[in-house]
UniProtKB/TrEMBL annotation:
Source organism: Streptomyces coelicoflavus
Keyword Plastid: no
Molecular functions (GO terms): DNA binding; DNA-binding transcription factor activity
A Pfam entry, by short name: MerR_1
Keyword Transmembrane assigned: no
Name recorded for this polypeptide: MerR family transcriptional regulator
Length: 140
């Protein structure tokens, strides 16, 4: 079997869970909620069979969710993709709005890290001098 043939072999829900980091339960939820861009094929026995395209899409979904994209936005994005060409500008607006939210979160976290780094330095300096007593002491 060639690499191309192996890549085209349908995948079970367990294999997709392993490749995407999503649980089997989450994969069923994604399907139920219309978060996939195509129908999941089934065997004659009713078992789900996924394609490499499904896995690629789910990996994008994982990153969008991990970065805080609301399910409603992800569902809307999937709907746009399912509708095919002609709505790329709307897809771009949706993704750009999400990127801007992520950028704002990153900026806020960088500001938090800066304060934490400063406070770590204060404590390290005081401990190195043996003068840590009284730092944030409510009884002082």
């Amino acid at each position: 079997m060639t690499t191309t043939e192996a890549a085209e072999q349908p995948l079970s829900i367990g294999e997709v869970a392993e490749r995407t980091g999503l649980s089997v339960h989450a994969l069923r939820f994604y399907e139920r909620e219309g978060l996939l861009v195509g129908p999941v094929r089934r065997t004659s026995g009713g078992r789900r069979r996924y394609t490499s395209f499904d896995v690629d899409w789910l990996l994008i979904c994982v990153k969008l969710r991990e970065s805080g994209m609301p399910l409603a936005d992800l569902k809307h994005f999937a709907e746009l993709v399912r509708h095919g060409p002609g709505n790329e500008a709307e897809r771009l607006r949706l993704l750009d709005a999400h990127r801007q939210r992520v950028d704002a979160q990153i900026q806020a976290l960088e500001e938090c890290r800066s304060v934490i780094t400063w406070k770590v330095g204060v404590y390290a300096e005081h401990l190195a001098r043996g003068e840590a007593g009284g730092l944030w002491d409510p009884t002082a």
